[in-house]
Amino acid sequence: MSSAKGLALVTGANGFIGARTVEAFLLAGYSVRAAIRCPNSASGLLGALPSYAASGRLSTAIVPDITAPGAFDEAVRGVAAIAHLASRVDFSNTNAEEVLGTALKGTLGILDSAVKEPGLRSFVFMSSIVAVRGSDPRFEGRVFTEADWNDNAEDVTGIS
Q1: pLDDT in tens, 53-112
Q2: Which domain range does residue 100 map to?
Q3: Dihedral, CA atoms, 144, 145, 147, 151, nearest 10 degrees?
């Protein structure tokens, strides 16, 4: 079932913030296609929002490898909005260049797919506050703006 506002794609939809983003789009009147890595993850998300799943306003797209060329081509078809939250996280990998390269490749991949979709009206990239402030406790309670940037991000989780 489509909605008046159209279809939104949310990547990383089975993560904490991703799932809340899915819910926010649904409450705002969008239908949502949730991009997830594996079919087993779908049941948790669909089960958490059963009325939306039953009505057809919540569906899933399986994207097993966000770094694969064309990985998002099918998922972006027909969408009006994209919220990109997905990043492959591997806490055992301490090589910052590899972690950043993987995150960058996934983001560029979805952007490549997005530019092919003529109905797309908006694209939002979401990241962690750790990317801006690192894990430094001195910044607790501070309000950050577009002017803030962390030139010293060395924490692998902060740059993913």
Answers
A1: 999 999 999 999 999 999 999 999 999 999 999 887 766 777 777 777 888 899 999 999
A2: 7-126
A3: 40
Structure tokens at 20: 């809340």
Q: What is the mean pLDDT of the chain?
A: 86
Going along 44-119, which residue ranges are E strands? 58-62, 81-84
Residues 67-78: pLDDT tens digits?
Answer: 999 999 999 999
**Residues with Cβ within 8 Å of residue 16, at least 6 apart in sequence:** none
| Structural domains of the chain, count | 1
| Residue 57: predicted pLDDT | 97
Own/partner contacts of 89-92, CB < 8 Å, gap of 24 or more, are 89/157, 89/160, 91/156, 91/157
Q: What is the pLDDT of residues 110-127, one digit of tens each?
A: 999 999 999 999 999 998
| DSSP structural state of residue 138 | G
How far is 30 from 26, CA to CA, in rounded Å? 5
Strand order across the 122-125 sheet: 58-62, 31-36, 7-11, 81-84, 122-125
CATH number at residue 80: 3.40.50.720
